[in-house]
Each structure stands twice: as structure tokens, then as C-alpha cells.
Design goal:
This protein is of the alpha/beta class. The protein has 10 helices and 14 strands. The chain binds threonylcarbamoyladenylate and magnesium ion (MG).
Length: about 325
């Protein structure tokens, strides 16, 4: 499963111009590690987008209090098409601006191996093909989609050099691939094409005007379509009622446990899944979505969730569990 322990060791600095450095970085990614890498916009914090443990380590390193969906970086259009559904509009944008600082948010292709944690439970996927030579070489060598938020601590500004990355993340990530300062300096423009309608979600390295010129139409207004934090509540939510901080188990309940805790009444549970028997929050985050889904699929009316520590990644786990427990419209 790759390096399970979180990186509290020294972050390796790899000089991208040295022979073999890109391959070394790719090997770390393939083993489930985290590598900050240059793109033409800002440095990204890369991890295998198909590996929920790697993705959990990204969230942990950034100290994100909630799981935001992460952009999946690809090296080729054929790779992108394995993960997102491109309609004519999306195709046209990809043709015009890829490789380059445009991220397309598209409906997820069902067969895509990008993990649910990387998508933060959304049924869409953010795809980006960077133009930076080193980024593309790294993604191609890793031979998988690379999840990559900006390589900064949550709430800090995006890094445009390896020094910036290390100032925020030294000792929290496995390596940084240093190719000098980035060119564009601001993040990619994000456009969603979900229902045939292109919408600007984030202004960035490619201007609205350039995009509208290619499309021959106006983009939906940014303010209308911003992903508000509240929208996260409409994520995948279980059919079952979710009971948080359970101190006991009622007969027939499905149980999401943590740290091998034995709640009173556990023997009467219909199904028990442990987020992390050893009490590791990275492992717990990696298992969260799949365990919730499996418990829900068991048909139990209620999922009882054992107490989970709220520090570190636990904060994001709590955030996600609270949303899944929130009241929602009857379906
Ligand atoms: O230039 C960039 O885009 C840089 C480089 C590293 O590629 N990356 C970057 O990632 O800025 P990040 O995570 O800092 O910002 C990505 C934004 C987030 O606000 C996230 O919510 C949004 O993209 N995003 C990603 N996938 C999405 C999705 N499926 N639906 C809506 N928003 C999405
Ligand atoms: Mg960012």
C-alpha cells in the first residue's frame, strides 16, 4: 500500500534538471507518497489520484479542515477521457487550451479509477493537462492521474517556487521536484461543463475573453456558479441515518468504528467496519467514503459512528461525517 506512515521525516529536494530526478519523483508517487511538483501556474502537491491513502496524505499535509475536490493532472487527452465525459464544448476547450492553465470540471466517467476521496465525493472530476515540461514528464512517468492542489498550507498563498513549498510543507511531504520559479504565477482557470453549459468557477491563467472567443458564447457568471461550501452538503449522502459520536450500538445498526474501539452492544450490529484499527487518521480518511458506502449498501437503517478524534485530519473527517448526517430532502 506504499508508505503508510505520514512523512515526518525530511523532505527530499530533487533538482529537476538532474538526470533521473523526474523518475525518482515518479517512483515516490507510484509508491503512494507525496511530491510537490512545478506546473506553469504554481507548484502542486502531487499524489496518486487513484490511491485514497495518498490523497489523505495530501489533505493531511495541507492541513485542510474539509475535503475539497482535487484537480487530477494528466499528461495526455486520451488519459483525460478515461476520467471525464467530454461533450462537444469540453472537447473544444481542451483542443484550444490544453496543455495549459485550464481546468475542466466534467461529469465523472463511471469506469475512472480516480478515488472518491480525491473528488471529495462529487460525481464530477476536475481535469487539467499542464503545459510545464517537467510536470508532464512526471505525470507520464508516474503513469496515473496525479491529484494536485496548490502546494501550500491551507489558507496560505499558492507557491511559485520550491522555496515557497518548503517554507510551508518541509517535513510534511516526501519530496519537492525543483524546476525553478513558475511562469504564470496564478492558478488555472476553472470551467465546468456539466450539462452542456460552460461556467467559470475560478478566474485564472486563461482569460474569460479567450475562452468566450473559442466558444462563441458567454460563460456563465462566476458568482452564480461558485462552489459554495454549503454545496458540499449535496454530496453523496447515505440513505441510512447517520448517528455520530455513538456511545453504544442499537441492535441491527451498521457501525463505523475507529481504533478498534468496542462499543457496548457491538455484537448486535448488522455490519462493522473500522476506519483504522490502529487509530491512524490518514488511514481513516482514506477509508471514509468506501466504508460509508459499504455500510449504507448493507441496508441498515442507521449507521452508528464511533467517536473520532477531531485533531489533524480528524477535523475533515468530522466535517464530512456531519454533512452525511445532516437532514436532507426525502428522495
Ligand atoms: O493551477 C492550478 O490549478 C494548481 C496547479 C497545481 O495545477 N492547482 C490548484 O489546485 O490550484 P487547488 O486545489 O488549490 O484549487 C483547485 C480548485 C479548488 O477550489 C477545488 O474546489 C476546485 O478546484 N475543484 C476541483 N475539482 C472540482 C470539482 N470536481 N468540482 C468543482 N470544483 C472543483
Ligand atoms: Mg489552492
Amino acid at each position: 500500500m506504499g508508505p503508510m506512515k505520514t512523512s515526518r521525516t525530511k523532505t527530499i529536494r530533487l533538482d529537476a534538471s538532474r538526470n533521473g530526478a523526474v523518475e525518482e519523483a515518479a517512483a515516490i508517487l507510484r509508491a503512494g507518497g507525496t511530491v510537490a511538483f512545478p506546473t506553469e501556474t504554481v507548484y502542486g502537491l502531487g499524489g496518486d489520484a487513484t490511491d485514497p491513502v495518498a490523497v489523505a496524505r495530501i489533505y493531511e499535509a495541507k492541513g485542510r479542515p474539509s475535503f475539497n475536490p482535487l484537480i487530477a493532472h494528466v499528461a495526455h487527452l486520451e488519459e483525460a477521457e478515461k476520467h471525464g465525459l467530454f461533450d462537444e464544448t469540453a472537447q473544444r476547450l481542451a483542443t484550444a487550451f490544453w496543455p495549459g492553465p485550464l481546468t475542466l470540471v466534467l461529469p465523472l466517467r463511471e469506469s475512472s479509477p480516480i478515488c472518491e476521496l480525491a473528488r471529495a465525493g462529487f460525481g464530477t472530476v476536475g481535469l487539467r493537462m499542464p503545459s510545464h515540461r517537467v510536470a508532464r514528464a512526471l505525470i507520464a512517468a508516474a503513469d496515473r492521474p496525479i491529484a494536485g492542489p496548490s502546494a501550500n498550507r491551507s489558507g496560505h498563498v499558492s507557491p511559485t517556487s520550491a522555496e515557497h513549498v518548503l517554507a510551508d510543507l518541509d517535513g510534511r511531504i516526501d519530496a519537492v521536484l525543483d524546476a525553478g520559479p513558475t511562469q504564470v504565477g496564478i492558478e488555472s482557470t476553472i470551467v465546468s461543463v456539466i450539462d452542456g453549459t460552460p461556467r467559470l468557477l475560478r478566474a485564472g491563467g486563461i482569460t474569460r475573453q479567450a475562452i468566450e472567443q473559442v466558444l462563441g458564447r458567454a460563460l456563465g457568471a462566476e458568482t452564480e456558479q461558485k462552489i459554495a461550501p454549503g454545496m458540499m452538503a449535496s454530496h453523496y449522502a447515505p440513505q441510512a441515518r447517520v448517528r455520530l459520536d455513538a456511545e453504544n450500538v442499537e441492535p441491527g445498526e451498521a457501525v463505523l468504528s475507529f481504533g478498534a474501539a468496542k462499543l457496548p452492544g457491538l455484537e448486535g450490529a448488522s455490519l462493522v467496519l473500522d476506519l483504522s484499527p490502529s487509530g491512524d487518521l490518514v488511514e481513516a480518511a482514506a477509508n471514509l467514503f468506501s466504508h460509508l458506502r459499504a455500510l449504507d449498501a448493507s441496508g441498515a437503517p442507521t449507521i452508528a459512528v464511533a467517536p473520532i478524534p477531531a485533531e489533524g485530519l480528524g477535523e475533515a473527517i468530522h466535517d464530512r461525517l456531519m454533512r452525511s448526517a445532516a437532514p436532507r430532502p426525502v428522495r
